[in-house]
Amino acid sequence: MSSKATKITFSVISAILVGAAAYAFSIYRSLSCPVSDLDDFNIFILPDYSQQTVLQTILDRNPDARTKGLERWMNHREYGRRIRSGCYTIRKGADARQITDMLVSGSQTPVRLTIRSTRTVAGLAHDIALQLMLDSASVASRLNDPIWLDSTGYTPATVFCAIIPNTYEVYWNVSPDALLARLLKERDRFWSDERKAKARSIGLSELEVTTLASIIEEETSKSDELPKVAGLYMNRLKKRIPLQADPTVIYALGGERPKRVLKKHLEVDSPYNTYIHQGLPPGPIRFVNIRSIDAVLNYARHNYLYMCAKEDFSGYHNFATTLSQHNANARRYQNALSKAGIRK
Hints:
Helix content: 40-55%
Strand order of the largest sheet: 1-2
Order of helices and strands: HEHHEHEHHHEHHHHHHEEH
Strand content: 5-15%
Oligomer: single chain
């Protein structure tokens, strides 16, 4: 080969090597370059997502995200063949390899599930479904399932005891069974030896404490009044006086809640009607906040037997020790209702 041909061949090979090196360097840069410069943010991946949907989800959260290298590394790891649902955190400064490794391994970020005190199983299931990758029907179905209830020791009348409204850390794609198993463990943890001892000291079971707590939670929205209302009903229980709690009558009626409890409502035939039946009803009338349960366990000691909403509609109540005092309070409240035009 002539010297000239050798030089040309060397130049061509050099050009190819330089081009390959440049391409390899560009690949390296795209893989090692941070995908996002934003603060950490979460993406939520559903089971039917494709690789492109995941990439678009990242771009929806950060339009400036550098996804070219991410897509290359995803292809290399064959991510599209084993996409895992869940909530994942895209960390500021994380590169394509780190993010792909996280997604491929399913290293999820737990989410905070806030369970509110609600009046129905359907309401609780709806709240959960808004926060997790669950549909409300699957949660409600399980809570109403006789087989599940029997396996956990609960009944339709006591299912409100199974869950303690609070904030928990769970995985976004948790299954209904796994979620409820976790919540049952949290319920057992809530009922510590100290709380159990307090319940025994006031002569109530855990079910009875929760049942009374559900009533006082319906009676007042004022946290500072809860122990006082609890004390009133404890006084009635001790004296074997019917509780005559309007919320239990409203629960017995079912359906739409009346604005005013009338005499005809007090005659409803139900074990939850505490105007007819002495003592506590068969179970709670709602899911119950921790503060209400603790208010029963630490109820205020006093002599009150009657309560009536204050005529100023502040949400607080007038308390009385005698029926005559209570009737006077009730007249003031009824007059205020009539003036406000509230008849039902």
